[in-house]
Each structure stands twice: as C-alpha cells, then as structure tokens.
Write a structure and sequence with these properties.
Length: 323
C-alpha cells in the first residue's frame, strides 16, 4: 500500500492532542455549571463555520502539489464555466444539471473492490483519500460531442488503486460502476437507460501513468456536478469513459459493456480513443469547440497524448479503437 503522506483534519497530531488531565478538568468545570450541553451548543454557535457536522473532512488535503509532468499548451477553463456545463445523466440529460446534482449525498461513501482480487474489500472514500498521495494535474477533456475543456484535477494514479486491490493474474479488465439511487438522482427514473452508469478499461490502460482517479478540482474537493467524491479521468479517450461518482470497482476477465455502448452500440464502443480522422456516426470529430471561448481548434490524435498511450494499441488494428 502507498505511504500515508497526508493526514486528514480528524487525525490530530500528538502535539495538538488535549492532554488527558486538561480534558478532564474542563469537563468537570462544565459539569459543575450544569450546562454541559448548552455550553457546547453555545460555543459552536459563536463560531459559525467551525466544527460544522457537514464540513468535508478531506478538505485539509487541498490544495495538493501540482505534478509538473502534466501541463498544457492552452489556458485552463475558468471554474465557473466548467462547473455550470456538465454531462451527468443521473441528474438530467442536459448541460445545466449543476443545481440538481447538489442532491448527491457523498458522505458516507463506501467503495466496493471485488471480482478477481486476492480479497474483496470495502473502503470508505475518506479513508481511501488519506491513504493515497494526492497531486494536481492539468488535463484536457474532449467530449465525444465535440466540445472540450481543460481542468486542474486533483487525485491519484489509478495504478495505485490497482496495487491496493491486488488483482489476480486472470484479471484483464476493470469495471467501474456509479451509484444507483433514483430517489436521490431523478435521471435514474428514466427507465430506458441501463442504470447504473458503467465504464471499463483494460488492466494495461489502468497501469498507464495518465489514468487518474479524481478526488478534487480547482484545488478543492470535487464539486458534486463533477462526479464527487471519486471519478475517473482518461484524457486520451472521449469524455464518457471518465465515469463519475464511483461506488464499485470490479476486476474481471470479460470486457465490460459500458453505459453508452449498451444504449447505442452502433455509435459508442469500448475503446473510445480520440481520433480526429474517425467521424462519429452523426458528426465529424475533426474539430472541437473550446468551452470558454466558443472558438474551434483541430482535435489531436489521442487528444494530444499519443506519446504516452499509442503503444497500448499496437497490434489491435482490428478493434474499433476510435468509437
Ligand atoms: N456517472 C456518470 N459519469 C459520466 C457521465 C454521466 O452522465 N454519468 N457523463 C460522461 C460524459 S459524456 C462526460 S463528457 C464527462 C463530463 O464531465 P464534466 O461534467 O466534469 O465535464 O463525464 C462523463 N462521466
Ligand atoms: Mo461526453
């Protein structure tokens, strides 16, 4: 397992711990006044914003240090643009789902690791976030609908999670699954979609340096509309591969059928690598609209990440690699 580098706010260092005697003295004092409950409530009320029950216990992990190996040749998309234009069908099939997505309950959030692993286990998201080493990376994101953005993600390498899961040598793919809760996410009441959202990668793709598990963006814990608390970022693939709000990670020897592949297999496949030369069934992939400027740019092979990933697909020319 990776070293514990960051400490969450609730794991107080010894230097900050209240010495036991002082603690007991204070408690006796409060008891003496007969105002224990009231005293605590009043103290909390005097400090709005402090010790709030709903505050995010992973907030102390941000901002994480930027890994300069992952930089960009273009401006970042402003946060207010990115966080108000999203695909998250669980909360509606349009781009303005950011308000509806605030209904997503992200704590507690357990992640199941199962399938072809030495021993299946469940880990709480906050626990996971503290066991890995978080870093910031600047990534491109190219949606299959021909718009693109750039974003400072915070997270950890997917290969670190694979190491933690200890897959058997028979595992060839990883299948990711989002939550299923139609009461919370009204989009999941639309029965014609095969909920929950599912995505998959090969073990080799997961081992690539670029494959990133995202826990934050813009130097903060992930906003709900970005797929809190944990999503994937696979910047050389069309955006739909980057599954949001992951609940279950399964190691398997069969290729997972992803959500969009199940809906429209003639238009969406398993690989979905960005290729400007291979048009979508209904539109060209030659260019992309930059979200915050509205200007068009030529789309790059593997979204500009060919040097890092092209080798993964050598000898696979018979596969539908670009849809
Ligand atoms: N669970 C889930 N994950 C998802 C989607 C979704 O609808 N549900 N949409 C995908 C698509 S099509 C894109 S382009 C990206 C959008 O990510 P963003 O909103 O952070 O830009 O999320 C992907 N992950
Ligand atoms: Mo997308």
């Amino acid at each position: 397992m990776p070293n514990i580098i960051h400490k969450p706010s609730w794991a107080l260092s010894e230097a900050h711990a209240t010495p036991e005697d002082a603690f007991f003295n204070r408690r006796d004092l409060i008891k003496g006044f007969g105002l224990a409950g009231l005293g605590i409530a009043a103290a909390a009320a005097l400090q709005p914003g402090r010790a709030r029950a709903d505050s995010d216990p992973t907030a102390d992990l941000y901002p994480a240090e930027r890994n300069t190996a992952f930089t960009l040749d273009r401006d970042l998309t402003p946060e207010d643009v990115n966080s108000t234009y999203n695909n998250f069908y669980e909360f509606g099939s349009h781009k303005q789902i950011w308000k509806a997505a605030q209904a997503l309950k992200t704590s507690p959030w357990d992640i199941e690791i199962d399938g072809l692993v030495e021993e299946p286990f469940t880990i709480g998201f906050e626990d996971l976030a503290c066991r890995v080493s978080l870093e910031e990376r600047l990534y491109r994101h190219r949606c299959v609908e021909a718009w693109s953005m750039t974003i400072p993600w915070t997270g950890f390498a997917l290969k670190d999670l694979v190491a933690m899961a200890k897959p058997l040598s028979s595992a060839k793919y990883i299948r990711f699954e989002t939550f299923l809760d139609p009461q919370m996410a009204a989009g999941q009441k639309q029965r014609w979609y095969p909920w929950p959202y599912v995505e998959g990668v090969t073990i080799d793709e997961a081992a690539n340096d670029l494959a990133f598990m995202v826990t934050g963006a813009y130097g903060k814990p992930l906003a709900k509309q970005f797929g809190a608390p944990l999503r994937l970022a696979l910047p050389w693939k069309y955006g739909f591969k980057s599954i949001k709000s992951i609940r279950r990670i399964s190691f398997t020897d069969t290729r997972p059928v992803s959500f969009w592949e199940e809906v429209l297999p003639e238009e969406y496949g398993f690989w979905a690598n960005v290729n400007p030369g291979v048009p979508h069934a209904r539109w060209s992939q030659h260019q992309e609209r930059i979200l915050h400027t509205g200007l068009y740019m030529n789309t790059l092979m593997f979204n500009g990440y060919g040097e890092q990933v092209a080798h993964l697909y050598k000898g696979m020319e018979r596969e539908k690699l670009y849809m």
